[in-house]
Write a structure and sequence with these properties.
By secondary structure, this protein is an alpha/beta fold. It is 28% helix and 17% strand. The radius of gyration is 16 Å and the shape is globular.
Length: 169
């Protein structure tokens, strides 16, 4: 299972888009508080294409320490512009339980946290003068790289609702 961890998300539409990604991919979402918005607000539902937290597997953690108490023994990949490795250098295909953390939109994951796991700090390559990508886009990019390496296991290979041959008919 892919576990997407949002460390103190700040922008409701990003979280909504990430809920949609988790729904589409079967990933579990972990949200670490504090957050400054209502997770069940209409803005979340609109940006998630009508999906809510109730449509996916999720956990909300009161703070980072509570998260660590429960899952601190897991190997967590931290997505940060300071990572020393490229996210695509990792072989995810032989890992069953994958944990990836993304930081706040404004400041990312605190340096103190990153320094405890330097070997699993990963970077998304971009131009030198670019500070970061949008949070929801970053989650999409990493989750789909993991799924690609696993041959999109468990995902539909055709448009199920209209049928496999819809485009041909």
């Amino acid at each position: 299972m892919i576990n997407v961890i949002l460390y103190m998300p700040e922008i409701p539409p990003n979280t909504g888009n990430i809920i949609r990604t988790c729904y589409a991919t079967g990933a579990k979402l972990h949200i670490i508080k504090p957050i400054s918005f209502d997770l069940f607000h209409a803005n979340i539902k609109r940006s998630s294409a009508g999906r809510t937290l109730n449509d996916i597997e999720f956990e909300i953690h009161e703070n980072y320490n509570d998260f660590v108490k429960k899952y601190g023994n897991k190997k967590i990949y931290y997505i940060t512009r300071y990572g020393l490795k490229n996210y695509s250098e990792i072989n995810y295909s032989n890992q069953d339980d994958i944990w990836i953390m993304f930081g706040t939109e404004s400041t990312g994951i605190p340096k103190k946290i990153l320094q405890t796991s330097i070997e699993t700090c990963l970077r998304i390559p971009m131009k030198q003068d670019c500070r970061s990508l949008n949070l929801a886009n970053s989650v999409n990019l990493i989750v789909y790289e993991i799924l690609r390496q696993k041959n999109f296991e468990g995902l539909s290979e055709f448009e199920y609702q209209k049928g496999k041959n819809f485009i041909l008919e």
